[in-house]
From TrEMBL:
Residues 372-381 have a biased composition (Pro residues). It comes from the Bacteria. This is ROK family protein. It comes from Citricoccus alkalitolerans. Belongs to the ROK (NagC/XylR) family. Residues 361-381 are annotated as: Disordered.
Length: 381
C-alpha cells in the first residue's frame, strides 16, 4: 500500500498502460496524485474528446499479422513498448513507484490473468500472460524477475503486469473517469474495432461474469447462415458491425478511410456507415432485452463516425426494442475517452490492484513534482 502523505497534487505512483488489440498496440503513461487524480504525462497539447486532459495521448504501434499469431513475438513487442515507457517515466519521475497494466482483446481468467482464448490475437490463446510479459521484459532488459510476482516496479527488477480484457478496461475508464461518468447506473459499453468488445457496468463496477467472460456481445449470433467467425460460430454480430465489415460495405481499404470519406459527404460511404449503424442498433435491441441498461456507450475506432452511425442505430434500437413504446429507451452515445479508454483503463486498474485508489481524471494541468527534474521536463524519447 502506498504512502499517500503530502498534498493532494503530490505524485504518489505512475502507471504504464498498454492496449493490445487486433492490429495495433496503444500505450501511454499516467501519474497518480495523492488526491487520487490521474493525469497524462506526455505533454503534447492534445486533449481528450470531451475536454478531459491534458495530453492523454497514446503512442500507437502497428502489429504485423505474423506477430499476432506468434505469442512470444507479441509479448516481446509489448515488453519493448513497456521498456520505452519505463525509461520515459524514470527520467521524468525518478523514484516514483511504477506499475504496468495490459488490456488485451482476449478472454482473461480474472484470478490468474491467463488468456483463455482470443479470436484476433492467435498467439495469445491459452497463455499465462502476466508471467509471459514479465519474462519478456526481463529477457529484454537483463533485469531479474520481480520477487514473488510483484506488480510494483522495485528498482532493478522486471515487474509483473496486471492483465485484463480490453473492453473491461475501457468500460472501467468510461464508468469511473469519463466526463460523462454518471455515478451508479447500469451502462453497457460496446467497443467496435477489429471485432466487438463489450462490458456491463453496474454501480461503477465492471461485471465480468463468473469466469471473466461476460460481455462477449460480438459473438451473439445475428445470422445463423452467415459467414464463419474465428470464434467457431457463424453469423456473429461483429462480422456485421466490425471495422472490416464497414470497409467492405463501402469498398474502401479501411474503416478509417470510409469514415473520413463519409464525414466529407461521400454518399456510398455514408450509406455503408448507416447500414452498419442499423446492424449495431439491431444488436443493441437484443442487449437491451437481456440487460435493461440506462445507457449504451459506443467506443472503438468505428465510433469516430459519430451521429452518422448512432442516428441509424437509435432508430433501429427503437424499432426492435421489445415492449418499445411502453418502456424507457436506453440512451446511445459515443465513448468520451474515445480510443484512449483501453490503455487508460489498463493503467488505472493496475494502480488500484497495487493499492492506489483512482478517483478522477485530471482536467487541468499535470501534477507538481517537487524533486528534480523540474516540472515541464519532457520524458526521454
Ligand atoms: Zn464469433
Amino acid at each position: 500500500m502506498a504512502d499517500v502523505a503530502g498534498t493532494e497534487s503530490t505524485p504518489v505512483a505512475a502507471a504504464i498502460g498498454l492496449d493490445v488489440g487486433g492490429g495495433a498496440v496503444k500505450a501511454g503513461t499516467v501519474v497518480l496524485t495523492a488526491g487520487g487524480t490521474l493525469t497524462g504525462t506526455a505533454v503534447t497539447g492534445t486533449t481528450l474528446p470531451g475536454g478531459a486532459g491534458p495530453a492523454m495521448e497514446a503512442a500507437e504501434t502497428r502489429i504485423e499479422h505474423q506477430v499476432e499469431s506468434d505469442g512470444n513475438a507479441l509479448s516481446a513487442l509489448c515488453a519493448a513498448i513497456a521498456r520505452d515507457q519505463y525509461s520515459g517515466l524514470r527520467s521524468r519521475w525518478p523514484g516514483l513507484p511504477v506499475v504496468w497494466g495490459v488490456s488485451a482483446a482476449a478472454w482473461i481468467d480474472p484470478h490468474s490473468g491467463r488468456s483463455v482464448f482470443s479470436p484476433h490475437l492467435g498467439g495469445w490463446r491459452n497463455r499465462a500472460l502476466p508471467q509471459d510479459l514479465s519474462r519478456a521484459l526481463a529477457d529484454l532488459t537483463g533485469l531479474p524477475l520481480a520477487p514473488g510476482g510483484s506488480r510494483e516496479h522495485a528498482s532493478g527488477t522486471a515487474p509483473v503486469p496486471s492483465v485484463i480484457n480490453d473492453a473491461d478496461a475501457a468500460a472501467w475508464a468510461e464508468a469511473r473517469l469519463a466526463s460523462t461518468a454518471a455515478g451508479p447506473d447500469r451502462m453497457v459499453l460496446v467497443a467496435i474495432g477489429t471485432g466487438i468488445g463489450g462490458a456491463l457496468v453496474r454501480d461503477g463496477a465492471v461485471d465480468i461474469g463468473e469466469h471473466g467472460m461476460a460481455g462477449e456481445f460480438g459473438h451473439m449470433t445475428m445470422d445463423p447462415s452467415g459467414p464463419l467467425c474465428p470464434c467457431g460460430n457463424t453469423g456473429c454480430w461483429e462480422l456485421l458491425v466490425s471495422a472490416d465489415a464497414l470497409a467492405a460495405r463501402a469498398g474502401r481499404t479501411s474503416a478509417r478511410a470510409t469514415i473520413d470519406d463519409a464525414l466529407d459527404g461521400d454518399r456510398a460511404c455514408r450509406d455503408a456507415v448507416a447500414c452498419t449503424g442499423r446492424w449495431l442498433g439491431r444488436g443493441l435491441a437484443t442487449l437491451a432485452a437481456v440487460l435493461d441498461p440506462v445507457r449504451f456507450v459506443i467506443g472503438g475506432g468505428v465510433a469516430a463516425a459519430g451521429e452518422l452511425l448512432l442516428g441509424p442505430a437509435r432508430e433501429e434500437l427503437a424499432r426492435h426494442l421489445p415492449g418499445g413504446r411502453r418502456r424507457p429507451m436506453p440512451s446511445v452515445s459515443v465513448a468520451t475517452l474515445g480510443n484512449q479508454s483501453g490503455w487508460v483503463g489498463a493503467a488505472g486498474v493496475a494502480l488500484e490492484r497495487a493499492g492506489w485508489p483512482v478517483r478522477a481524471l485530471s482536467t487541468g494541468s499535470g501534477p507538481h513534482w517537487r524533486g528534480s527534474p523540474p516540472p515541464g521536463t519532457r520524458p526521454a524519447p
